[in-house]
Amino acid sequence: MQLIVGGFTSGSLVLLETQFNYPPEVKEYSSIGTGAPYADNSLAKRNQGANTSFQRTIVHVAEAMEAARADKDVGDPADYVLITPRAYRRLSAREPYLMQLLLKYRDKDTDDLDDSNEAGDKLRDALYFPGTTREEYAKGMRRPTGAGLPMARALNWRIEDHWKITEWNDGKTTFTLPRLFTEPIHAERDKETLNTHAFLVTDCKTVGCWVHLVVRHFGLYDPQGNYALPTTATMRLYCNLCHAANDYGQHDLKLIRGPKPTNDFKAAF
Question: Tens digit of pLDDT for each residue in 57-101?
């Protein structure tokens, strides 16, 4: 087991790391997982520490994440999360200004970022609050307005293989698949792929929530099948990852291939 715990206690920052049977250690920075050696090496080269400025730290962490992908089991990041004593916010890993900084400092020292109020302000302006939809984010909004949609209470949930299933007290059941484990319906098939079933899905509208909400199961994928989007009325779906409720119409639907569903799969609405 490997675990990082970060937060605040009595107003002071605490970062703990524990690995396997070793007791927890206080760290200035920490990496775990199969890509950790690459990430640690990148952070060490940048002299990352507890007193490194916000803007430099963002650049160093993004570089470390890219370095970690030298391990084939490490995928692309979706977001970076910033924790403060009062709230937490997120930064898109593909934020255009961050991409500019990564390119600018690829082979340069980042020391001058400490004195760049502009860099700090631009990165802070790009932070957004959880629950912000993609539509809101595209409009420049960084706080959610649609988070007040009525939502049921979760009765229980479970993980089965790649699936997460949540049962709600209004009778709905939500089935979600991480996009990493799916592919477009007509993508070229790999003989080793586990994506042998066809589904009708929609993407969660929350920025940074990279899951498909599965609406319908079409059974085993048929390469000769005539798959088409069915006509459907507006429906309200709940995400069992970010716990956001959103309304979805036919224009939000798509067809994908994914792994075998759970034994008790039924329509999600």
Answer: 999 999 999 999 999 889 888 889 888 776 678 898 999 999 999
Please return the burial class of 220, using the count of CB atoms within 10 Å of its CB with bins 0-12, 13-18 and 19+. exposed
94-112 confidence digits (pLDDT tens): 999 999 999 999 989 999 9
Residues 6+ away with beta carbon under 8 Å from 185: 198, 221, 227, 255, 256, 257
Q: Where are the domains of the chain?
A: 2-127, 154-258
Q: Are 196 and 259 in contact (CB under 8 A)?
A: yes
Inter-residue contact 250 to 231 (CB < 8 Å)? yes
Contact status, residue 49 vs residue 43, Cβ threshold 8 Å: no
CATH architecture type of domain 2-127: 4-Layer Sandwich (3.60)
Average pLDDT, the chain: 85
What is the rounded radius of gyration, in angstroms, for the C-alpha atoms of the chain?
A: 21
Question: Residue-wise over 31-59: b if at least 16 C-beta within 10 A, else e?
Answer: beeebbebbbebbeebebeeebbebbbbb
Q: Does the model's pTM come out above 0.70?
A: no
